[in-house]
Design goal:
Elements (H helix, E strand, L loop, with lengths): L21 H8 L6 H6 L3 H9 L6 H11 L4 H15 L5 E9 L12 E6 L13 E6 L6 H7 L14 H18 L3 E7 L2 E3 L7 E3 L3 E6 L4 E3 L8 E2 L2 E7 L2 E3 L16 E4 L6 E2 L3 E4 L3 E6 L7 H9 L13 E4 L6 E11 L4 E7 L40 E6 L3 E18 L2 E13 L13 E6 L2 E12 L4 E5 H7 L30
Parallel strand pairs: 2-3, 7-10
Antiparallel strand pairs: 1-2, 1-8, 4-7, 4-20, 5-6, 9-10, 11-23, 12-13, 12-16, 14-15, 15-18, 16-17, 17-18, 19-20, 19-22, 20-21, 21-24, 22-23, 23-24
Helix pairs in contact: 3-5, 4-5
Length: about 525
């Protein structure tokens, strides 16, 4: 299968002065009368293992020679590179991980044997990492090129009718069917999803966007391939691949003023968690009465999530009615409810909180110093919801989350499939709404659980609940209608009577009354 040339990128490699010959002296001083050059020339694997056991490493040219002689996928080359990676990691406490790679595309087969060590650091601007004469490419853990952001910014035109979307369901089925194979063969994948435009020539100063459905593969570093792996295929089924730099983040983190009655957009946390999420909206449940919505991953740690997954995505007995939820604030936190139900599967990541104190009385959001550009602050009194399939691409939407507060974006796709590969744990998100940022970030860490809204004819509707987002600013949200159906709740959120003024949210004046 032909490899994807889209993995090409320009990279800067730290290339140190050659120290060929140093290890030959070291081996003699250690009483080992053999050299790396001899072992490579004679294909002497036991000899190489003895050198490695004595912590005697090859030079860069000797490593490349071993890679050429034994081939880059061989176990002995993997052991050599593993030893070097370990030594590189010990150079600085700023280094989080390192791995051996080769540049792609290659001008010749020999170029596959030019080993480069990719080094991830805690911060983007750490001092240059050097280790002997090895070639090192250094990158911050959260540092990515701007290509994917450029793609997103060019991805959407307001109210654009795109005939390609007719085929989007078939593309997502192809992605789902091929995701495990891709992840098994390629260890550097962060996420796989669908795209409606393919990026070409970004690093060659002739960047264009091809309007074509494609399989988008997100990696940390583009243009460098793990030494023991092949490049990505250029096509999967009939769809071209588009390799971009980026990652997906679950948005749990983040603020904080105490409220006597809880409202949408507050920072919330569970007693067992150090991170925060956003309180979404409220619903009247036949089982529990007044409840609040947020994301499951905001309230449960990794071990508890594993228990939930083992229980079919639902709360196991030992976690039922014992997870207390607090409003996280600058003063002492105070609880307002307990987790009644969760759903954690391919289609949603949601927690239903049974509110037992500080009941909501308002459809307002927290006050901020951020200018919204509107004459009235955002609010949501009616409880109305909308299905994403009814929304045109490019429609303006907004949300309120604890990290980015009030932000605007544009609705892009009604049903997105994303395959995540986080810390070697794979997860599939199906049927997610895709929203694109229009100015800055639409959502960041801490905004998980926030609701997304749109306004039509002066009426505000809830569209979905934020779950995660890409580093390029694209945000994923679960359709609110699917959440309410799965939780066996009414097909609307709670409504409230505006207090002492007409609401900008359609002027609703009666609770639970809506003729539309």
């Amino acid at each position: 299968m032909k490899a994807s040339s889209d993995e090409c990128t320009s990279i800067r490699i730290e290339d140190q002065t050659d120290t060929d010959g140093v290890d030959e002296v070291s081996t003699r001083e250690s009483g080992i009368f053999t050299t790396w050059k001899q072992c490579i020339a004679e294909m002497d694997i036991p000899g190489i293992n003895k050198l490695l056991d004595k912590e005697l490493l090859p030079t860069a040219s000797e490593l490349n020679g071993a890679c050429s002689a034994f081939k880059r996928r061989s176990p002995i080359v993997a052991r050599i590179c593993g030893k070097i990676c370990k030594e590189i990691k010990n150079v600085s406490e700023d280094i989080t991980s390192t791995w051996a790679a080769y540049p792609y595309p290659c001008k010749s087969k020999d170029e596959e044997c030019n080993v480069i060590f990719v080094v991830y650091t805690k911060q983007p601007k750490c001092p240059n990492i050097c280790f002997r004469d090895f070639r090192i490419y250094q990158r911050g853990e959260s540092e990515f090129s701007e290509e994917s952001k450029t793609v997103v910014s060019l991805d959407i035109t307001p109210h654009d009718e795109d005939n390609q979307l007719i085929d989007i369901e078939n593309l997502q089925m192809i992605i789902e069917n091929n995701a495990d194979t891709l992840l098994d063969k390629h260890s550097n994948i962060n996420a796989i999803t669908s795209g409606i435009k393919k990026s070409v020539g970004y690093m060659q100063n002739h960047h264009i966007q091809k309007r074509v459905l494609c399989v988008v593969i997100y990696v940390h570093v583009k243009g460098l391939i793990p030494l023991e792996e092949d490049p990505f295929p250029s096509y999967i089924d009939k769809y071209p691949t588009d390799v971009l730099e980026g990652d997906v983040t679950l948005f749990n983190k983040g603020p904080f003023d105490y409220r006597e009655h809880v409202i949408m957009g507050l920072a919330i946390k569970a007693s067992n968690m150090n991170s925060y999420g956003t309180l979404g909206g409220f619903v009247m449940s036949d089982k529990y009465g007044v409840c609040a919505l947020t994301c499951c991953h905001c309230l449960f740690n990794e071990n508890e999530i594993s228990q939930i997954n083992s229980n079919g995505g639902n709360l196991p007995v030992d976690l039922q009615n014992c997870t207390t939820v607090y409003q996280a604030c600058r003063q002492e936190s105070k609880s307002f409810g307990t987790v009644a139900e969760v759903i954690h599967d391919e289609k949603m990541d949601v927690a239903l909180i049974n509110v037992i104190d500080r009941f909501p009385e308002s459809g307002e959001f927290p006050e901020t110093d951020l200018e919204t550009g509107d004459s009235n602050p955002p609010e949501f009194y009616s409880g109305r919801i909308r299905e994403p399939n009814d929304i045109q691409r490019g429609t303006d939407v907004f949300k309120f989350g604890i990290s980015t507060n009030f932000t605007k974006g544009r609705f892009n796709l009604p049903s997105k499939l994303v395959v995540l590969n986080k810390r070697f744990r794979r997860r599939v998100f199906k049927g997610q709404i895709e929203v694109i940022s229009t100015d800055g970030s639409f959502a960041k860490e801490g905004d998980s659980g926030a609701l997304i809204f749109l306004t039509e004819r002066k009426r505000t509707f809830c569209l979905g609940l934020i779950v995660a987002g890409f580093t390029d600013g694209t945000v994923l949200a679960t359709p609110i209608g699917k959440i309410l159906t799965a939780l066996e709740c009414p097909n609307r959120l709670m409504s409230f009577r505006p207090v002492n003024r007409l609401s900008g949210d359609s002027g609703v004046v009666e609770m639970e009354v809506d003729d539309d």
